[in-house]
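User
Please review the sequence:
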Amino acid sequence: MKFEQVLSIETSCDDTSVAIVKQDGYVVAQSSANQDLHHKAFGGVVPEIAGRNHSLQILPLIESCLEKANMSWVDIPGIAVTNRPGLMGSLLVGVVTAKTISLTKGIPYIGINHLEGHLLAPFLKDDKYQPPENFNYPYVALAVSGGHSQIYLVKEFGQYQVLGSTIDDAAGEAFDKFAKLVGLGFPGGAKVDQQAKLGQENKYDYPRPMIKDKTLNLSFSGLKAAAKRQIEKMSPQSIQEELPHLCASYQEAIVEVLISKLNRAIDLVGEVKGVVLTGGVSANSRLRGQTAAWAETKGLTLAVPPLRYCTDNAAMIGYVGVKRLNLGESSAQDLAPSPKVYPGDFIV
């Protein structure tokens, strides 16, 4: 059976997303909802609240997506759903929904690794975005978000080698914790970015953890600790006065480390002409700008999906799902959500 398109579901953390994606990566429609206001008072994502809100939002979003696409269930031959890794309560909502639709409509479904979706997001396209010309496998990808920070060699579809990974905190978490320290609130990454545009990147001398380490692993706990010590020495008034400089200096430390590791990865791998920046943190304007400048000096084709395909979204899950269904893969009704990746998902 040939799958022309699938309906896909993403509920791995606190964003609920539904999409309809064609086999060539064209996104027919996507409907998403975030929960920022629900978690803001707690300074971070509360798993129980996230799961409950997914259960309220998922069916209306499915209806909205079908309506946007001007389609009915007759037009949907298969379903893709994120089942790993992520928050168990959140994943459960998406997986149970996909299983139920699969049973009631008599169509196959498949569980997808959320991270694989991020790695293949550059191949998505719509009326406003196309992948860079001649972009293809193999390529090096930097996937940075609130929960993940890794560097991969994407050899071909289904062949992903982990080159480096964070040994403690993810880059997105480092941004969010810093934002909380200086009173910017949650979610903090975008707010730090906005403030940093008004500040000096070298005003404060923050450490660049593991930047000289020969591995491609990442670490941000030391940077967080250094920033905390710096801020604890300052009065509330001086923090406010220096806020743009604090944000710019902290942001620059993270960006320099990430690009340094990307550069090392390209040099180690060799014979790779493409590089990908993906995940929620790739929305950071400084990271995008500096990565683009670096890629140009290296003669690399840089692919950075638009924000709607960088943050947690169902379109990337649909693209992976439709390809896997067309390869003859599908999931059984005993598929369970998993907080971790499966042993065979990546080459270590």
Q: What stands out?
A: The two ends are 33 Å apart (CA to CA). The CA atoms of residues 71 and 287 lie 38 Å apart.
